[in-house]
Amino acid sequence: MNNGFIVSFRHKSHVYVIVHNDFLYIGQTGSHPAIRWGSHLSATGSFTKNLKYFHDEEIVKDKDIFFGCYELPIVDQEVESKRRLARMAVETELHKLICLQPRKLGFDSFLTSTCEEYPIRHTFNFNPEKVANVIFSRVVSDFCKWSSYC
Asked: Which of 55, 78, 90, 150 could form a disulfide bond with 82, CB atoms 3.0-4.6 angstroms apart?
């Protein structure tokens, strides 16, 4: 049995991952990730719906699910009106990294999430690609500590 905990303020920027079997979901939120995770796993949630729609699969009730969340304090330094776009930029770059290195998690991961392309014309006080690289390394490290895949 694997247990863990997350500590975070409710209204902070995060990107998060959900891994179930060979399926990976990436998302972003300006709230606490646990709130989003609950909605993703419901019958009408995007993780559940995408798993069925794209892969004709369902959540296996006796299989573990890995949840990872990564706070983005640098995003919260942006003006509030740009924070969602800034989170989307990091999420998009993280999707790209997973697509370019799908076996980095120790298995052929299939993305069940989609991301909206953030408009390139927006600039931020940070580099979304560099932040995504740091997050990607942490996702791989955290997942490999938890999983027998790596």
From this structure: 78
- pTM to 2 decimals? 0.88
Contact 97, 133 (CB under 8 A): yes
Instruction: Give CA–CA dist 146/29, Å, rounded.
Output: 23
Q: Which helix (H) or strand (E) holds 121?
A: none
Confidence tier at 119 by pLDDT (50, 70, 90): low
Give yes or no for a contact between 28 and 16, defined as CB atoms under 8 angstroms apart: yes
E strands in the chain: 14-20, 23-29, 65-71, 110-111
The C-alpha atoms of residue 57 and residue 59 are separated, in whole angstroms, by 7
- Decide: 56 and 112 in contact? Cβ < 8 Å: no
Contacts 24+ apart (CB under 8 A), 87-90: 87/13, 87/14, 87/15, 87/28, 87/29, 87/30, 88/28, 88/115, 88/116, 88/118, 89/118, 89/122, 89/124, 89/128, 90/15, 90/28, 90/128, 90/131, 90/132, 90/135
pLDDT band, residue 102 (cuts 50/70/90): confident
